[in-house]
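Reading group handout, session on sequence-to-structure problems. Before we discuss, look at one worked example. The prompt was deliberately terse, the way you'd type it at a terminal:

> structure Carbohydrate ABC transporter substrate-binding protein

The input record follows.
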Amino acid sequence: MSISKTAMSGLALTIVGSLALTACGSGDDSGDDGGDVTLNFTWWGGDERAARYQEAIDLFEDENPGITVRTSFAEFQDYWTQRSTDATSGELPDVMQMDLSRLLEYANAGLLYDMNEFAGEQLDVSTFDEALLASGEVDEQLVAVPTGTNTLAGFYNPDLLAEIGVEIPDWDYTWEEYQEFMIEVAEAGASHEPRVYGAGDYTMTWWFFLQHLVQQGIEPFSENGEMNFTEDDMREWIDSAAPLREPEDVTFPPSRAEQLLPKNGFTSGEAAVEFHWDNFLHSYSHDLNSDNVQLMPMPSGPDGEKHMFFKPTMQLAMGSNSSHPEEAAQLIDFLVNSPEAGAIIGTDLGVPASQTRLDALEVEEGSLDQRIMDYEQRLRDEGHATAQVPAHPEGFGALETEYVEVLSQEFGYRQIDSDEFVERWFSEAANLLVTS
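And the output record:
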């Protein structure tokens, strides 16, 4: 088995137009690495995830000597650019990571294999919560299987905060208190070498905007794809962080962020906090070479509640062009259900969605896996995770890309203001959002 990291650039904005042309394709790949069948498997993620997948797939190949797995991986946005290219040429991988934000785009174009054919045989789906499994169903077809669950989290570096003499807020903190913390860190970190910031501009993250809407009592999208928020809602959200930008900008500079790639401000030790999905604890700890990265919840909304939600971390799907769907289903079953694979992967793909894997998962006290599981349990116990994951209409992924990869970059460099940001996003939404 070989693993290569794909170096790609660009944005996954062309996918919808090309998908419908490619529902049929050969995808034939047999035995060129010495086995009877060769499967192509690709995912997004970093080196830490690649190492875990590699070890698990080595074990799968040992148990299935007639199958060879050829793999590749990339960062999230680059990954979807490559999948768009694959879709155009009818060469989607046999097995690939899928995200809920892209599922309908691929499924509605007929690009994903209906795995109901293998349920109960090559693929055991009885181990999943029905509602969680249903997240991978489109028009009664099982086109994706969840790997795990996750939720949003704030990651912070206690060692760095101790160096500059700043304390992290309590769990019941608000967005306004988070802003005060950001300003305090920037002031205390100004004389640190290198300079330390609190974090980037949080309003430029799509999922934080959605979390904010949920806290306002707004479900961002209806199941039929209708948008339930207005231009004013988005503008008010962006402008709410104005105290971080004026009179002095205390958010992490985008120019410095570019210099640090492929790391970011947090994993380079130049930002104290980073918000992301909680399973990123593995990669952040790895990149910081630290076992002391800690987690905290999102800030509270106006009613004092957090209204957080759990979602499928990611899913595994099969390209409809696969020449080896039965073997592909075997690989997916191994990755999501096998206790042996679970021991290797841990919670890097989320807290296991399969009850079989979850029951068999042995975690060491104080380990990263244990801390993620404890974090999610505390959210449940203290009533912080009370909302449902926002609906993902077709076009959701492209809208997220426009928000995060295009407009937020221009806003970060102050090339556009909040008015232009909102105007352009809603203009794109009118073209990209598919309603039924």
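Points for discussion. First: The longest strand covers residues 37-44. Second: The two ends are 43 Å apart (CA to CA).
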